[in-house]
Request: fold
Amino acid sequence: MKPLLCLFLALLAAFPVAGYSVNSASYERDLLGALERLLAHDQGSAAAQLETLTQSYPNSRSGYLIYADLLAARGGLTPAIGQAMGHLDRDVVSELREQLSIRWHYWHTIRAARQDLWPAALLQLSGQQRIILYMDIPAARLIVYENDGGQLKEVDNFYASIGLAGFEKRREGDQKTPVGVYRITGFIPGHKLHERYGSGALPIDYPNELDQIYERTGDGIWLHGTEPGFINRAPRASDGCLSLANGDFLALHRLIGDATSVPVVIDPAPEWIAPSELQRRRERLSRTIIRWFKARLESDTPLLDRLYSLSHHDTSMRHLSHAQPSSSFTGLARHLRVEDTQLLAYPGEERLYVADLWLTHGPQTKIRIRQYWQRAADDEWQIVREFSIPPNG
Reply:
């Protein structure tokens, strides 16, 4: 077997074969199914599958690349694609191989290792939150979770590209994808956009409150489709957005529907934990919030002073300055109740959590508070920022 085909098999053979239980009726299933045939040394079936794949998906550059390698190997030739592309500033062939490798690795190693585990960042969804999106940057996967009676339920997931220069966006034009907790703010159909955005776009609220405190610049960070001539791009290919295949983008938009403020958690270092540990962390932060709320109701000034101040034991968040209690409570504190909460760990920030609280005062008055909580090294908690936001914001 000749060099380029051998390279595919060397990259993939270390990963055990598994099924595709989510998003199974897809281009990705067909593409990886052909690779499985290659691993089984069934070149005839692989060639037939790849011929069908490239006919069904004429923009599948990955499919054509594998098919060309396979045909060259069967003909006893040494493919020269790598050398022919070597003059380009970006090695397109290497990017295609990287995309294939990362897709295979997700379905055949990563996913199996995460059975019965959940992202640690998704502590608790509010009863009003139907859908949440979780971008696992190392796996290049955008995972869609549904709120199933307070429990997370994965309903779909998609291969997605990030910024050409990676992640941790800091300034306008740096071609990096932001890290943190964001929210979708609307939908722009593809016919209103340049063709580079494919089937449409879902803008997010970068820069959010925390980004503005850090004085991060730039805007126009979207989830969007892919331009003509491609199905997907390399794992790092956008100007900072999350880019999906056009079919996947449309499927995502159908799942979201007309919902507003859908959270998008973009995580460069995912931690996957058992439900019991997720529950333990959720309860730990919930107890702290209940303690804070009781102090507000009872005007416990000494406790509130401690909760709204930064511990001298931990200076990692001092640049955020001390939070000030929201004015929304003025004159109402003793009559408020917590109607709902949403708790998320904030990726990219050590021991930082964002809590959205829905408060009510009778049938007419509704208050929404967003708090950023830091858990200090001594396990004490402080509110480092607090905002009043519109109830539906």
In short: The CA atoms of residues 6 and 346 lie 42 Å apart. The chain has a mean pLDDT of 84.
